[in-house]
Specification:
alpha/beta, Aspartate Aminotransferase, domain 2, Aspartate Aminotransferase, domain 1, seven-stranded mixed β-sheet, five-stranded mixed β-sheet, 18 helices, about 15% strand, binds pyridoxal-5'-phosphate, pyridoxal phosphate, decarboxylase, Aminotransferase class V-fold PLP-dependent enzyme, Aromatic_deC
Length: about 500
């Protein structure tokens, strides 16, 4: 045979020994053991420190114990050690009192799905390579659109997260505005040097990153004023677009945010949609955090303006509670992703039969974005949605919003707390003892220090893991609940500890 003719020593390959292989019986035993340990881990999580205490020296010494693996080690030892280390010392977003940034608690069904997808290891690149998996993924994309009320005739793509989804959206806008030539010419065209992008200062930092990576440059971002509620000021938007047009600039794209990362504010999407339509500007909604709030009757009505967007970013690893990482970009024109990204390299198979399932514009994922080899990430979203249904997500998201509102009410009526904001499932507040002075620079600086110390102490004791932000220049404790494990008792615990720590720290600072 041709194959054996080119092998150096075919006889030694007859019974190949592959150290990576784990025999089915061992796989079964190891898997059972791992699941046992993880079930224990999840059961014990609520009683565990949210942020297990460890110093940089500790971490350094744990890592130093792991010498460079020159040779093989037993599977049980390798898996067991990692399990010991992570179950004892890792921060878990699934902890009922983890509320930092915007990080969803991980759905157990999502964990199973990731394992299943990795084990079957089916490619998610094209119909010709693996028809079933890409068709399942394409259907799941349609479900995402339907879930948030976005037109179902559009296209979309699962990516690693909201940051990449925003980059893809910017690329779509460039293609739509400059035409197909942008693929060859890049931004060298004189028209390209006049493009402007519009976003508020509370837009996510990945918008800046997208402007950089695309070659547009952050100088092209026009910062639109925020109104008193932290939303995009549409009058300012309208004026800036008009002013740019009169000076020969080309408005490229408005990035509105459905749930800002800091405070959860939802920009007035319907008004922005109207301006974009009138001015013929690409309308992108960054709903990485708040897009799925469209499911909830408790979200501001404006959220439904995302239905009118040319492109939308949503992040299943935030409010669909999926294990990271998975983000999603949706767009109205199903062919645009293909036109923007398709390379059609000669070494890839094509297949006409796929028309029945939506054609290459829905199925040829390697030609719809930046990734060629892709994980079958869609499976976790699919199974997660099948497990709870739209109604289950509506309930969980609404509960998260109501818990955040409740925290805001508790803080608002507590004599030692000051409630700042509540939008979607984010509440900001601070500790402010009755005798404190606020309003003066000195008094505010003292309150900032005090609340900073409270946050550090919460993290240090591992009681709760909120993060912080600034509200009108004031340091605020920030609780973002994208966590179906959180209950009201957890928030009451938080309030009790904030006030206990606050009193102790105030005494120390006095
Ligand atoms: C989290 C977030 C992003 C970034 O998403 P990743 O999944 O972390 O890449 C973008 N925009 C908003 C509004 C976000 O909250």
């Amino acid at each position: 045979m041709f194959r054996s003719a080119i092998l150096a020593s075919p006889s030694s390959l007859d019974q190949r020994i592959a150290p990576a292989r784990i025999e089915p019986e061992t796989f079964r035993a190891l898997g059972h053991e791992l699941v046992e340990r993880l079930a224990d881990f999840m059961a014990a999580l609520p009683d565990r420190s949210v942020k297990p205490r460890q110093s940089a020296q500790d971490i350094q010494s744990w890592l130093a114990e792991a010498a460079f693996p020159e040779t093989a080690s037993p599977a049980q030892q390798v898996l067991g050690q990692a399990c010991d280390l992570l179950c004892s010392h890792a921060v878990s977003t699934s902890h009922p009192r983890f509320w930092a940034y915007v990080m969803g608690a991980a759905s157990p069904m999502g964990m199973f799905a990731d394992f299943l997808a990795a084990a079957v290891s089916a490619p998610a690149t094209s119909y010709a390579t693996s028809g079933l998996t890409v068709a399942m993924e394409a259907q799941t994309i349609q479900w995402m659109a339907r879930l948030i009320g976005y037109p179902s005739g559009g296209g979309g793509l699962f990516v690693s997260g909201g940051s990449v989804a925003n980059l893809v959206a910017l690329r779509l806008a460039l293609h739509a505005v400059l035409g197909a030539d942008v693929r060859a010419v890049g931004l060298a065209d004189p028209e390209a040097s006049q493009l402007c992008l519009y976003a508020t200062e509370d837009a996510h930092s990945s918008i800046d990153a997208a402007a950089e990576v695309s070659g547009l440059g952050t100088q092209r971002i026009r910062r639109i004023r925020l109104d008193a509620a932290g939303r995009m000021d549409v009058t300012d938007l309208q004026q800036k677009i008009r002013a740019d047009k009169t000076t020969g600039k080309t408005p490229l794209m408005v990035v509105a945010t459905a749930g800002t990362t800091s405070l959860g504010a939802v920009d007035p999407l319907r008004d922005i949609a109207r301006i974009c339509r009138d001015e013929q500007v690409w309308f992108h909604v960054d709903g990485a955090y708040g897009g799925f709030a469209a499911l909830s009757p408790d979200a501001p009505d404006d959220i439904h303006g995302l239905q009118e967007a040319d492109s939308v970013t949503i992040d299943p690893h935030k409010w669909l509670y999926m294990p990271a990482d998975i983000g999603c970009v949706l767009t109205r024109d199903p062919k645009l992703l293909l036109d923007t990204f398709r390379q059609g390299a000669p070494y890839y198979a094509e297949n006409d039969e796929q028309a029945l399932l939506g054609g290459p514009e829905r199925l040829q994922f390697r030609d719809l974005g930046l990734q060629t080899t892709r994980a079958f990430r869609a499976l976790k979203v699919r199974l997660g949605l099948q497990l709870v249904g739209r109604s289950g997500y509506r309930q969980m998201i609404t509960d998260d919003i109501r818990l955040a509102r409740k925290l805001h009410e508790i803080a608002g009526s507590h004599p030692e707390l000051e409630a700042f904001t509540h939008h979607l499932s984010i509440t900001t507040f601070r500790y402010r003892p009755a005798n404190s002075v606020s309003g003066t620079a000195e008094g505010e600086a003292r309150l900032d220090r005090l609340n900073h110390a409270i946050l550090d102490e919460l993290h240090r004791c591992g009681i709760a893991y909120p993060s912080h932000t600034t509200v009108r220049g004031k340091f605020a404790l920030r609780v973002c609940i994208v966590n179906f494990n959180t209950s009201l008792a957890d928030l009451e615990d938080l309030v009790r500890h904030v006030t206990d720590i606050g009193r102790a720290v105030s005494r120390d600072l006095a």
